[in-house]
């Protein structure tokens, strides 16, 4: 028996409607989560039997980070996009001074190396960027799987020019894109137009 037109219309209508999130329920859940984290930390210190002498007596939950993982039931966009969306956070996630950064740029790489070497570039970030490579050199030098794995292991963070981010999966292969831990993060490297 063929489906009727009304059942198809109902299915389409339910697909377009997104359920609203109750702000009060979200606040209630967040408070319960913070209370659980505090309770778990207290029970952990009691179980260990040893008191932390370096702990601050007025230490509260404001100093400990809370990680949020957002999972959706349906895809947010209809098409498969390799360029991730940007969410502005008040505190950065990658603050480790020891982590190394590889910057993947558009051709030629020399212009970007000069910008990083200049005195106007932030000193803390300059120390962390250990390699600058353009797409042409990336395709030529790191074409083999073993070379890609070596590059993957050498650096902690990979940044890429947002203009070339869609060309990177073919150049970097499954080594970088099988997980999201070291997937290149798009950054805007094109110069802003000067206003007159």
Descriptive report:
The chain has 196 residues and is an alpha/beta fold. The chain has a domain at 101-187: Rossmann fold. It has eight helices and four strands; from the N terminus they run ααβααβααβααβ. The chain has a four-stranded parallel sheet with strand order 2-1-3-4. The protein is extended and about 55 Å long. Residues 6-14 have low confidence and may be disordered. It holds the Pfam family Ribosomal_L1.
How do you describe this structure in short?
This protein has 196 residues and is of the alpha/beta class.
In whole angstroms, the N-to-C terminal distance is 69 Å
CATH architecture of the domain at 101-187: 3-Layer(aba) Sandwich
The residue ranges in which pLDDT falls below 50 over 5 or more consecutive positions are: 6-14
Task: Name the helicity range.
Answer: 25-40%
CATH topology tier name of the domain at 101-187: Rossmann fold
- Integer-rounded radius of gyration: 24 Å
Instruction: Write the element-wise H/E pattern from the N-terminal end onward.
Output: HHEHHEHHEHHE
Total beta-strand segments? 4
Helix count, per DSSP? Answer: 8
Strand content: 5-15%
Question: CATH superfamily of the domain at 101-187, please?
Answer: Ribosomal protein L1/L10, domain II
Instruction: Tell me the name of the CATH class of the domain at 101-187.
Output: Alpha Beta
